[in-house]
From TrEMBL:
InterPro entries: MBL_superfamily_lactonases. This is Metallo-beta-lactamase domain-containing protein. GO terms for molecular function: hydrolase activity; metal ion binding. It comes from the Eukaryota. Keywords: Hydrolase, Metal-binding, Zinc. Belongs to the metallo-beta-lactamase superfamily.
């Protein structure tokens, strides 16, 4: 039977009868709770396999990892902070003869919601020039975005994300959630890894979605095209700077 990995939240779902559900570290009693996102009848007659990071000695990027199919093609990474049992995934998209040029897509689920919580950072600082096709001023000097960065005076806006997870966040553990983002930043800086999330609408036109294949993302330049798309939201502020200059 094909395995199905349940998401961290969402409405009740009906799984095909051939589906073998897998879930994260949520206590098994939670699926019986009245307000649970999944209901007990959805698991009736099916084998439910608990994913346990405690039984795996594997780590990738400092995150506890399960080699799901045991063939190096799909990894599930422990990503605490956002919700109980929250996980990320690392899916292989292309292999090379020596393995050094293998490529992956990192699925970060809800670890962050916008690229402005991920970049810029020490691994991926603002470049000297940023190309955003929809911008009226393109290419745009990276230093312009440093000028509109909300960072308090004294910090370095070139290596600090525009946003952080606030103390009032819905995340169940702020410290863990912020640490997971820090680890994802290292994946994002690796040219072999394309990081995508569940809420980044800015680069939908860059991706080729199902049923198309994502295996050629590196050749097609998806990562470079998508990386700074979140800055489109600052078009108005950049226009004001250019107006002041003239």
């Amino acid at each position: 039977m094909e395995p199905c990995v349940l998401g961290s939240h969402g409405p009740s779902l009906s799984f095909p009868s051939i589906c073998k559900p897998h879930r994260g570290t949520i206590n098994s009693l939670q699926i019986l709770a009245r307000d649970a996102p999944f209901f007990s009848h959805e698991f009736s007659g099916r084998e439910v396999t608990e994913l346990s990071f405690e039984s795996s000695a594997l780590t990738i990027g400092g995150m506890k990892t399960i080699d799901f199919f045991k063939d190096g093609g799909f990894y599930i990474l422990d990503a605490p902070g956002h919700a109980v049992g929250h996980v990320n995934a690392l899916a292989g998209t292309a292999t090379s003869q020596d393995g050094l040029d293998d490529t992956f897509i990192f699925l970060e689920a809800d670890s962050y919601h916008l690229g402005s919580q991920l970049r810029p950072n020490p691994y991926t600082p603002f470049p000297s020039s940023i190309e955003i096709s929809s911008f009226s001023h393109c290419p745009c000097p990276g230093e312009l975005f440093e000028r509109i960065h909300p960072l308090p005076v004294g910090g370095d806006p070139s290596v600090t994300p525009f946003q952080i997870i606030p103390e009032e966040s819905v995340a169940i553990n702020i410290k863990d959630a912020r640490e997971v983002i820090r680890r994802i930043q290292a994946f994002d800086a690796d040219g072999r890894v394309f990081v995508v999330n569940a809420h980044e609408w800015n680069y939908y036109d860059v991706l080729e979605v199902f049923p198309e294949s994502a295996n050629e993302w590196k050749t097609k330049g998806w990562k470079e095209k998508a990386r700074w798309r979140v800055l489109e939201g600052f078009q108005g502020a950049v226009d004001l700077i250019f107006t002041d200059r003239t």
